[in-house]
Amino acid sequence: MNREDRLKRLRFRAWHRGTREADYVMGGFFDRLHQGWDDESLDWYEALLNQEDADILGWVMGTIPIPEQWQGSMMQRMQRIDYVDIPR
């Protein structure tokens, strides 16, 4: 799959999580930051999309410990939550 198609697929998956909160976190993170991601970052994000919403939100909010495989600069950036833009 070429990069453009992969990005389209990832964006769709990010914004169609099943809960509004997860949509804003995953979709907002993707929309604001994906332009600077290399293939390794895309792989990390794509794998994260396979995790449960409750786990992702817990890791991002710091309410549950982050498993070692998800720790690192991408999760640290995600935890800043400054990319969430809630429509009014």
Q: What is the secondary structure topology, with strand pairs?
A:
Elements: H1 3-15, H2 20-33, H3 39-48, H4 53-61, H5 73-78
Helix pairs in contact: 1-2
| Overall structural domain count | 1
Which consecutive residue ranges, at least 5 long each, have pLDDT under 50? none
* Tally of strands: 0
Note the total helix count.
5
CATH class: Mainly Alpha
Largest sheet: none
Oligomer: single chain
Based on secondary structure, the structural category is: mainly alpha
**Integer average pLDDT:** 95
Cα radius of gyration in angstroms? 12 Å
Overall helicity: 55-70%
CATH architecture: Orthogonal Bundle
The third-level CATH topology is DNA polymerase, domain 1
Q: What is the CATH superfamily label? A: Flavinator of succinate dehydrogenase
Strand content: under 5%
Distance between the termini: 36 Å
The ordered H/E elements are HHHHH
Shape type: globular
Describe the structure.
The protein has five helices and no strands. It is mainly alpha-helical and 88 residues long. The protein has one domain: DNA polymerase, domain 1 (Orthogonal Bundle). It is globular and about 35 Å long. The longest helix is centred in the first third of the chain and has 14 residues.
Key terms for this structure?
single chain, 88 residues, mainly alpha, DNA polymerase, domain 1, 5 helices, globular
Compact summary:
With 88 residues, the chain is mainly alpha-helical. The protein is 59% helix and 0% strand.
